[in-house]
Design a protein that fits this description.
CATH class of the largest domain: Alpha Beta
Radius of gyration: 23 Å
Strand content: 15-25%
Helix content: 25-40%
CATH superfamily of the largest domain: P-loop containing nucleotide triphosphate hydrolases
Shape: globular
Number of domains: 3
Length: 555
């Protein structure tokens, strides 16, 4: 059966029963139908005195068209932990409509390791992304409205930094002309759109501790500059209060369930190749108060999502992960070893061994943060024993352990061994987590640290304009912020076709953006776009309603 057929056949429990498993009273759940609900802020406040559970991060090798199954493994591990008698829940991100209708097709896991309701989670869900888009758009409108009605703040029209957003892959909107059509439409200027998941509003919602913190961060966003280069903030436009009102409900974590009726928070969704790639801090910290084990994911490979989780999210939220699970597949190792997609079903142990260099690089990188790691080999039905053994042997040679996990086909029965290994690691190998760089390093030194330590670049290429901009931000008091690298997810380099574990390359920095409200500096590298485009044959072409009114084509 397809993923959507498996999800549709699931026996779901009423969401109030799922909440009861976590000790959430029904009057603290705001239901969205029978199978999803938001958790009230008052309940979240009431559990802050609880002891924290153990935080497990799931990351992966660099993604390939062969698939890695990071979310599937996250769900499978959560179910596996519950199956071996642990009190566990998962925390993952919400899905963006852009990739769902583009290449990805869904983000709720797969096979018998899924979050349900799968269709809702991959589409409008509880409206959080619409609220973020609306809040962002409100600020956009208020900026141009302020300029139209006299520009009291003396905004330099050439230096409006605030771009618009829409939750769709639409390359035609990357660069646009605004306010055309005459005097009544305002002052013409250039602008552009990013995808909603790259919005600073999304990043702020996922890093804010509560509504008060949310409004402060929204107010701290820099939207433009004056002719003297002094910043204009969202609070100067007086937009922060109304934006907070629009985001009031979106700030509350969404409770759903896995196919095995275990609780899951699905909340927030910044991309990991252009944003910080983690679910919300409020969902993660609340889950840690409710469960003994919390399994969360960070987007794309460990060079992006895990690096940002460990350098940005954990630093800002005071989190200490107990262990990291690095997901790998035989198929991904083959592709990293030079095998083309059409030949992946043929046994090729040599290619697997060669491709393991990519996995080895990620193992080395995670160790630099002081967190114990285990490799999860996400099993595909055509993997051979010899190919699996090649990964097991390689991981052992790296001083780490790997576990074959069959959660896609068998649910918690297939992930029980992985769950037991994770428990063993957290009980025998105490985490010595520390960020890769201190706050005190200069912004450019932080960029160099990530480039050299994580990507293995020999140098960073940035022109004088970028260096001067970083220095200006440091002079304005932003020098202690972490850096958020925007880079292709497919490679350690900025060339998406460079697989494996390349060395000797340079990291070209194209642009830097200050996200003062979110609390990081975005570093745009190579040709990465903050507004993706649709592929030649988008998934949307295959998504439709069948005769029974059911959704087909999501996967």
């Amino acid at each position: 059966m397809s993923d959507i057929e498996i999800a549709r056949a699931a026996t779901k429990k009423p969401i109030m029963e799922v909440g009861d498993k976590l000790g959430i009273p029904s009057d603290h759940l705001l239901p969205y139908g029978h199978d999803k609900a938001k958790v009230s802020q008052s309940f979240i406040n009431s559990v802050q005195g609880n002891t924290d559970g153990k935080l497990i991060l799931v990351t992966a090798v660099n993604p390939t068209p062969a698939g890695e199954g990071k979310t599937t493994t996250t769900v499978g591990l959560g179910d596996g932990l519950n199956a071996i008698g642990k009190n566990a829940m998962i925390c993952i991100r919400e899905a963006s409509l852009g990739p769902n209708f583009g290449m990805k097709g869904g983000a709720a896991g797969g096979g018998y390791a899924q979050v349900v309701p799968m269709e809702d989670m991959n589409l409008h869900f509880t409206g959080d992304f619409h609220a973020i888009t609306s809040a962002h758009s409100l600020l956009s409108a208020m900026i141009d409205n302020h300029i139209y009605w006299g520009n009291e703040l003396e905004i330099d029209l050439r230096r409006v930094a605030w771009r618009r957003v829409v939750d769709m892959n639409d390359r035609a909107l990357r660069q646009v002309a605004l306010s055309l059509g005459g005097v009544s439409n305002g002052f013409p200027r250039e602008g552009g759109f990013d995808i909603t998941v790259a919005s600073e509003v999304m990043a702020i919602l996922c890093l804010a501790k509560d509504l008060k913190d949310l409004q402060k961060r929204l107010g701290d966003m820099i939207v433009a500059y004056r002719r003297d280069r002094s910043p204009v903030f969202a609070r100067d436009i007086k937009a922060d209060g109304a934006m907070t009102v629009l985001l009031k409900d979106a700030m509350q974590p969404n409770l759903v369930q896995t196919l095995e009726n275990n609780p899951a928070f699905v909340h927030g969704g910044p991309f990991a190749n252009i944003a910080h790639g983690c679910n919300s801090v409020i969902a993660t910290t609340t889950a840690l108060k409710l469960a003994d084990y919390v399994v969360t994911e960070a987007g794309f490979g460990a060079d992006l999502g895990a690096e940002k989780f460990l350098n940005i999210k954990c630093r800002k939220a005071g989190l200490t992960p107990a262990a990291v699970v690095i997901v790998a597949t035989v198929r991904a190792m083959k592709m990293n070893g030079g095998v083309v997609k059409n030949d992946l079903d043929n046994e090729n142990v040599d290619a697997v061994t060669k491709g393991c260099a990519n996995l080895g690089r990620h193992i080395e990188n995670i160790k630099k943060f002081g967190v114990p790691a285990v490799v999860a080999i996400n099993h595909f039905v055509k993997d051979t024993e010899a190919e699996v053994q090649a990964i097991l042997d390689f991981v052992a040679s790296q001083g780490a352990e790997a576990v074959l996990s069959k959660h896609w086909a068998d649910g918690s029965k297939g992930s029980a061994d992985l769950a037991r290994k994770v428990v063993e690691i957290t009980e025998t190998q105490p985490s010595k987590y520390a960020p890769l760089y201190p706050d005190s390093k200069s912004l450019f030194e932080k960029i160099e640290t990530v480039a050299k330590e994580i990507y293995r670049a020999v140098d960073v290429i940035a022109d004088k304009k970028i260096l001067d901009q970083l220095k200006t931000w440091e002079d304005q008091g932003y020098g202690d912020l972490p850096v958020c690298m925007a880079k292709t997810q497919y490679s350690f380099t900025t060339d998406p076709n460079e697989r494996g574990a390349p060395t000797g390359h340079s990291l070209p920095v194209r642009e830097v953006r200050l996200s003062a409200g979110a609390g990081f500096v975005v570093v745009v590298c190579g040709e990465i776009m903050t507004m993706p485009g649709l592929p030649r044959k988008p998934s949307a072409e295959s998504i439709y309603l069948n005769d029974a009114g059911e959704i087909e084509g999501l996967f």
